[in-house]
Amino acid sequence: MPMISKKKIETLAQERLDEIGAFLVDINIDEHNKILVEIDSDTGVSINDCVSVSRNIEHNLDREEEDFELTVTSCGLNKPFKILRQYQKNIGKEVEVSTNEGKQLQGTLLNVSPDSITIETQTKEKIEGKKKKQLITKQHHINFDDIKQTKLIIKFK
């Protein structure tokens, strides 16, 4: 059974993504031609957006030539970021960053560059000469190479 090319799926998905104002996060194709396409957008992804992308891919592949299973989904809120665009979308929001050294940082995503991020954390620390712990704000500059994963912190009000 011939493998479906990732590039072909990416091209077909991108045609529709440009129209609906969304972006591609990931494409995964296993050895049984199970295709998983993850999409996202700055304003959220609807079921109709997923259906639209799915139909564009499906209508341009020939099932007689290659059998496949296709799933188009939005990125889950609890899933780690995979691409730079997801970091950019979440500037100003609370994130949890796990570093390759095992450090965990929770804070506000302040800035994103092509190779790093800056987050601001707030912790209560004992300051010499003070009775109460003081709120300390720090900025952490973290290279993407040092990040194991970054997730959005979901808060319900």
Number of strands: 8
> Within the largest sheet, what's the order of strands?
7-6-5-4-8
Mean pLDDT: 93
CATH class of the largest domain: Alpha Beta
Shape: elongated
Mind summarizing the main beta sheet?
A: 5 strands, antiparallel
Explain what this protein looks like in three dimensions.
The protein folds into 2 domains: 6-74, RimP-like superfamily, N-terminal (GMP Synthetase, Chain A, domain 3); 84-152, Roll (SH3 type barrels), CATH 2.30.30.100. The chain is 22% helix and 39% strand. Strand 4 and strand 5 (104-112) form a beta hairpin. Helix 1 crosses helix 2. It is built from 3 helices and 8 strands; from the N terminus they run H-E-E-H-E-H-E-E-E-E-E. It is elongated and about 75 Å long. With 157 residues, it is of the alpha+beta class. The strands form 2 sheets. It has a 5-stranded antiparallel beta sheet. The protein has a 3-stranded mixed beta sheet with strand order 1-2-3. It starts with 5 loop residues before the first helix and ends in a 5-residue tail after the last strand. The model has no long low-confidence stretch (mean pLDDT 93). It has helices at residues 6-20, 47-59, 84-89; strands at 23-29, 34-40, 69-74, 94-99, 104-112, 116-125, 134-143, 147-152.
